[in-house]
């Protein structure tokens, strides 16, 4: 049976559906049908503006963000949903936490829905550190249908790694 490392938290029946699509070589088709578009947020500067725009809409009073970037070295296997790090830096004798949002570079070429899902996830971490109930409620508030999108994004990561039925 194909192990689906991005989908281990989901019910076995759902995982089996994905396995079925993989077996039939139809996973790419499933994704292409649902997510045919590609977003235009290509530079770190554009990504920063995109993140700040969403933050302004939903999390105006949350802590500020110092830096936003696409990170080509981000380990998608371990950190499938980006990194949220507070980098400590000494500034004027004081230790200051620097808030960065890093988005795995592969999401540069992804559907707009997936970029939005990743960014919403990272923004929600400004309020909630853990993946708890309040965290997911906030995600759903910022992006209705968040849960389905996170599932589909994990399916997308699975498909990318299989690389089997990519359109030519
Ligand atoms: Zn997270």
UniProtKB/TrEMBL annotation:
<dbReference type="Pfam" id="PF01863">
    <property type="entry name" value="YgjP-like"/>
</dbReference>
<dbReference type="InterPro" id="IPR002725">
    <property type="entry name" value="YgjP-like_metallopeptidase"/>
</dbReference>
<dbReference type="InterPro" id="IPR053136">
    <property type="entry name" value="UTP_pyrophosphatase-like"/>
</dbReference>
<protein>
    <recommendedName>
        <fullName>YgjP-like metallopeptidase domain-containing protein</fullName>
    </recommendedName>
</protein>
<feature type="domain" description="YgjP-like metallopeptidase">
    <location>
        <begin position="93"/>
        <end position="153"/>
    </location>
</feature>
């Amino acid at each position: 049976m194909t192990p689906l490392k991005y989908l281990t938290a989901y019910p076995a029946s759902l995982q089996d559906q994905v396995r079925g699509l993989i077996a039939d070589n139809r996973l790419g088709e499933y994704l292409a049908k649902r997510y045919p578009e590609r977003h235009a947020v290509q530079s770190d500067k554009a990504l920063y503006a995109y993140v700040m725009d969403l933050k302004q809409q939903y999390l105006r009073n949350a802590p500020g963000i110092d830096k936003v970037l696409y990170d080509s070295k981000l380990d998608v296997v371990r950190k499938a949903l980006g990194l949220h790090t507070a980098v400590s830096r000494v500034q004027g004798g004081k230790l200051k936490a620097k808030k960065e949002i890093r988005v795995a570079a592969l999401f540069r070429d992804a559907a707009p829905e997936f970029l939005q899902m990743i960014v919403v996830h990272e923004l929600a971490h400004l309020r909630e550190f853990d993946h708890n109930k309040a965290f997911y409620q906030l995600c759903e508030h910022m992006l209705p249908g968040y849960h389905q999108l996170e599932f589909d994004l994990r399916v997308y990561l699975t498909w990318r790694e299989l690389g089997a039925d990519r359109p030519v």
